[in-house]
Write a structure and sequence with these properties.
Structural class: alpha+beta
Low-confidence stretches: none
Oligomer: single chain
Distance between the termini: 13 Å
Largest sheet: 2 strands, antiparallel
Number of helices: 2
Number of strands: 2
């Protein structure tokens, strides 16, 4: 679980850096959205749609950028 949490946090850091450069979406992070059966915390990247006029293109952008960051994290030596 710790390795998965680290991998997901790396993905979050890539997305966050891109957003801070004004090039991407802004997502949030939680260290423990729930616990695994063995009581370890499960971390998560979170996306909240706050605008009622958000369209499918915007949601697809979030998904595309998340997948791009995942590929970057894998290429950097992370696990899939």
């Amino acid at each position: 679980m710790i390795a998965h949490n680290r991998f997901n946090h790396h993905i979050f850091e890539l997305i966050h850096a891109r957003a801070m450069r004004g090039e991407g979406v802004l997502l949030s992070w939680t260290d423990c959205y729930r616990h695994a059966p063995d009581h370890q915390p499960i971390a998560a990247i979170k996306s909240f749609i706050m605008n009622p006029w958000t369209d499918l293109d915007a949601v697809e952008t979030v998904c595309r950028q998340l997948l791009e960051a995942r590929q970057q994290a894998i290429a950097a030596g992370g696990a899939a």
